[in-house]
Amino acid sequence: MAERAGIMRASVGIDYARYETGVLAFDYERMLADTGYDIAAAQAVQRETAVGDTPLVELHNITALVRRLASPGKGARIFVKDEAANPSGSFKDRRASLSVHEARRRGYPGVAAATSGNYGAAVASQAAKAGLRCIVVQEAFDSRGVAQPEIEEKTRACEAYGAEVIRLSVGPELFYVFLMVLRETGYFNASLYTPYSVLGIETLGHELAVQTKERTGRFPDVVIATHAGGGNVTGTARGLRKAGATDTQVIAASVDLAGLHMASDHDFNRKSFTTGHTGFSMPFTTWPDRADVPRNAARPLRYLDRFVTVTQGEVFYATQVLAELEGLERGPAGNTSLAAAFAIARELDEAQVVVVQETEYTGAGKHPIAQLNLARRMGIEVARGDPRDSRPGERILIPTHPAQIRVVDVDLDRVRRSYLRHALEGLAPGTRPGEADVRFLAEETRSSEDFVAEVIHEQAGTTG
Amino acid sequence: MTELTPKGTWVEIYRVILPAGERAPQVPEDTAGVPLVMRVKGWLAAPAAPGAEAEIVTPAGRRLRGTLVAVNPAYTHGFGPPIPELSGVGPEVRAILGGEAGDE
Asked: What pLDDT is attached to residue A291?
């Protein structure tokens, strides 16, 4: 695909090459700043289509439940940002809004996005309002024609907003189909990974910081974000900082799908989650520039204080508790961070505040019942039990007690080393990282130049 | 003779994008062994018979060709029966709260 760079450049209107500052380094902050969107500018665009300004809901009953399980004096207050209140039902409207606004402002005839999730509905919804045509390319069904129910619901939602939906069987060649669509139509690439898509989420981090301060007198001690491609974590963390919440701990939470291959036709319908899982978060955290744009604006390692995983069964359990104790039927994928909050809030003091940073709408297909019925049909065991005995693709265990919900920490140092290995492997033969590159890699991994130098040295030893 | 579906009917077409054996080199074996196929819905551009080649106009206004596989295709996703393993969760957590949900 020699034309790839040209198609990409035309479809997002960003000359990524001008931000390069080394053989690996590029000026990330300038790339974002050049879009012209600070918090106020992004909010102004989003308010035009009723995106954002979502309620921050205190989960009194879940907090009480967590305190029953905690040591005396422990059990932080838990709040959730009810992002399901956005026009298409998820925080993805924030990401879509700036892209679609840009597409219209610059005179593109339409927008296209490669996504099987909520983002497709968000782009379609925003495009409808802007009077632009919209094409969404989905990975939707396996070779037997069995569609993932959550993606089926997304197909329906996109079509409800008047979009063309291209449904594909399983495989990474979706990207090739998407490029052909961009070339043929000249549409704007509303990629999840452009600066617009990430800057659109900054308002979420900013809003929740301000709302939490108003409600509790303090910034959140912890914000937990469901983590897949990295945009959610990146945008939220940046928004928190811009609101002044610089001491807030940012925790990414993903559903553990270890062992399931993301490009496998066989494994496709053995996942009960289509996003928020390690199948995206691991590769995108260790190497963000695998995206459909040359430089991914979502760079989670720059912002993560902690990265944890939970199991599918724990998220379904949390989803059920959210409905039955708080009267909020939401999710399920968006409740990944809620499941993590059960375990994390337990260890914090009662005076502390945990914010679960999103919910998403629920409905036919996009529901624990639909997912677990599919799982059973695929031969996966669904039972009550200790979630640590679960196995992705084989056994889903719904906890028998909320005290069984725990988080498993991902070793961030290993992730950093993996990131650096990917970066160094991408170097053209004969090139060596210079001073600017080492500094860049230290920023990228939130480590130090010494740490980067050490890994470069190790790498040279193994390849040299 | 098969009856033709009238022009303007909302239908779905199907097309093989990459046959098995011509998949991208990085795909796992199971995926490499099956074709990459596409399904798209739109309005029939001209009368066509189910199972035959047809042209559609998509909601984005594009003209696409493929095999006519469904006429006014249904959305079949739903919920299915309740999951007993989830149904007990609410009563259990309310019991832990001692029937005092809302009391901090």
From this structure: 85
Chain B from 36 to 95: CB within 8 A of any A CB: 36-42, 58-62, 75-83, 85-86, 88-90, 92-94
Residue A462 confidence (pLDDT): 66
Q: Domain coordinates of chain A in residue numbers? A: 40-88+198-409, 90-195, 412-463
Q: How far apart are CA A139 and CA A51, in angstroms?
A: 27
| CA–CA gap between residue A112 and residue A144 (Å, rounded) | 27
Six-digit token string for A184: 């043929």
Quick one: pLDDT band at residue B103, thresholds 50, 70, 90?
very low
CA distance B4 to chain A (A): 24
pTM beyond 0.90: yes
Q: Among all residues of chain A, which has the CA nearest to that of B83?
A: A369
**pLDDT category of residue A288 using cuts at 50, 70 and 90:** very high
User: What are A15-45's pLDDT values in tens digits?
Assistant: 999 999 999 999 999 999 999 999 999 999 9
Selected from 3.40.50.1100, 3.30.160.20, 3.40.47.10, 3.40.718.10, the CATH number assigned to the domain covering A40-88+198-409 reads 3.40.50.1100
Asked whether A333 and A279 are in contact (CB, 8 A), the reply is no
| pLDDT for the residue B14 | 98
Is B79 close to A263, i.e. CB distance below 8 A? Answer: no
Q: In Å, how far is B6's CA from the nearest CA of chain A?
A: 21
pLDDT at A393 over 70: yes
Whether the CB of A316 is below 8 Å from some CB of chain B: the reply is yes
ipTM of the complex: 0.94
- Chain A CB contacts of B77 under 8 Å are 147, 149, 152-153, 156, 364-365, 370
Of B10, B6, B14, B8, nearest to B64 (Cα)? B14
The answer to whether the Cβ–Cβ distance between A169 and B36 falls below 8 Å is: yes
Element (H, E) at B10: strand B10-18
- CATH of the domain spanning A90-195, picked from 3.40.50.300, 2.40.50.140, 3.90.1300.10, 3.40.50.1100: 3.40.50.1100
**What gap in Å lies between CA A326 and CA A342, rounded to an integer?**
14
Give A63→chain B minimum CA distance, Å.
Answer: 8
